Amino acid sequence: MTTTTDTPVTAPAARTTPAKRPGGRQREGAAWVFLSPWVLGAAVLTLLPMAVSLYLSFTDYDLFNPPRWVGLRNYTQMFTEDPRYWRSVGATLTYVVIAVPLQLGIALVVALGLKSMRRGRGFYRSAFYAPSLLGASMSIALVWRALFNDGGTVDNLLGTGGWVNRPGWALFAVALLTVWQFGAPMVIFLAGLQQIPTELYEAASVDGASRWRQFLSITVPMLSPVIFFNLVLQTIQAFQVFTPAFAVSGGKGGPADSTLFYTLYLYDRGFVASHMGYASAMAWVLLIVIGAVTAVLFRTSRTWVFYASEGDR
Q1: Per-residue confidence band for 139, with pLDDT thresholds at 50, 70 and 90
Q2: pLDDT in tens, 294-309
Q3: Which of 7, 24, 146, 164 is least enclosed by beta carbons within 10 angstroms?
Q4: Is CATH 1.10.3720.10 the classification given to domain 91-261?
């Protein structure tokens, strides 16, 4: 006689969905409460003014009467009928090409010197950084104008006459003021240099590599992301330079429009001549140009910026 044992059939376990954490909605609401000042500030102080500026760029607006729609007239006048506009573009591009490489080069050299310094590094780092805090002020720009004016310190030392009164030299005086403010990129370079492993330099020294070869083969590639960061940041700031040119030229962009930078001419059109629609169009062109230049820098960075892993790109 055979006996069979019936094995109970168990039903498949039902899928369970993770239970929602209690109070999740409350935490999300609390997050939005804390973020609300930033969101409100971005909307009211950034997005709304940008939208109004875009609308005004298609109008004739003099700050006193209601804006009158003129379509693309401001843009066509800017590109085809305004020679001072193109002089401001030329002066700004010349300034960017001169000031940015000089500033970054001096910042890197000083950072290399501070890295190898054993004592007093903190003092010198603070001393070199101080001009970056003071250089953007109107008072320093006025002092700079006095230094490079006729009969000023530079004139007395070099006997070349006042730079700010000579069309071929005024722009260089403004560029030197920017170069003098190398403290901010210097601190960033110094932080990047301290992250480079010393073992790489020791191995290169054992292989007989000179200091110059170590700089080209180790320092520059390992520091390239920091160089790229400083290049983008300083280029954007250089396109927006205003205070030094305003102080050195007395707000006129002289002599002979040699310091008529883009933002200075924008200020002149908007707040001196009361052509706010035209100034708004200039502002949007500047925004597009800065965006395009930044995009080109990011695009070309793939060929010379070194990252630790390809996944970081």
Answers
A1: confident
A2: 999 999 998 988 886 5
A3: 7
A4: yes
